[in-house]
Amino acid sequence: MTITQPDDWHLHLRDGPLLAAVVPHTARCFARAIVMPNLNPPITTADQAVAYRDRILAARPQGCNFTPLMTLYLTDRTSAQHIRDAHASGVVHAVKLYPAGATTHSESGVTDLRRCEAALEEMERIGMPLLVHGEVTDPEVDVFDREAVFIERVLTPLIERYPRLKVVLEHITTEEAVRFVTLAPPRVAATITAHHLLWNRNQLFEGGLRPHHYCLPVLKRERHRQALVAAATSGNPKFFLGTDSAPHPRRAKEATCGCAGIYTAHAALELYAEAFEAAGALDKLEAFASFNGPAFYGLPRNAGTVTLVREPWRVPETYPFGDEVVVPMRAGERIAWRLAS
Ligand SMILES: NC(=O)N[C@@H](CC(=O)O)C(=O)O
Ligand SMILES: [Zn+2]
Ligand SMILES: [Zn+2]
Asked: Which residues are involved in binding Zn(2+) 2 (predicted)?
């Protein structure tokens, strides 16, 4: 199966020596990727985004023209000038909202959206999308309900208050999110990961506790997975590919308090192909992976193509990750599709 070369609209590449470990996995398939800014410390200025972009470019394999699309990390102190500088840099394509404490490296995130009014108004004016980790951090709210409650308490008022702001609800996991995005105006879209299309929350406890299946938002019950598959394969242009590939060293995952994130970049498109094939909707993969994202971001479609062949292969148990290793999704197991090189 040959399709227009896809892009990854939600990706974690980390930094420093780790870049060399993960950039080639993404670059072998995707032409562009929206790179998340949740480094430690986070990417909060245009200058930092430009420097981070240069480090990513330097980690590309020779002859590869993968293009990272940079993002800024929204904080309580992000000003309208920060947004103008980001826009003027020409390399920052979006701004990311992490509610403080919601996920990995969200300590510097937003404590109260009212502090971000000037920044959000400027983004609305410029047309720069707000990307959202959509979970409340209220400890009273059940961890499986945090996305649905976020939509009700935060997202619905947000899109009313900023009537032209473009918003991407990232890595959606619930039928509530699918319904919200479907009914919202065209300026509201969502990314969907391969793991949330393939797995439900039983995978967290399959024969024992599975730290490598733990991510945020956490896997949900089967009816939610089915709603995500229906959305991804519907042809609705509001839904597009974002892997949320989030590598962590094995040591940090297999720990007393294991961190959140699933590594999928080694086989991202192949995993999506499995999910679309299982739904009898392989013909819908190209729009989801290659058309809907650029249309939302106002970018051209890629000129090249990639080819997937139906040829099973076995995923390694680990990949090198700096001085450590990362355990990829499906480690030691088979994947039905292979990317032809
Ligand atoms: N998805 C995750 O579980 N983790 C991401 C952060 C995020 O996207 O929320 C990470 O940076 O590790
Ligand atoms: Zn997130
Ligand atoms: Zn993420």
From this structure: 96, 133, 171
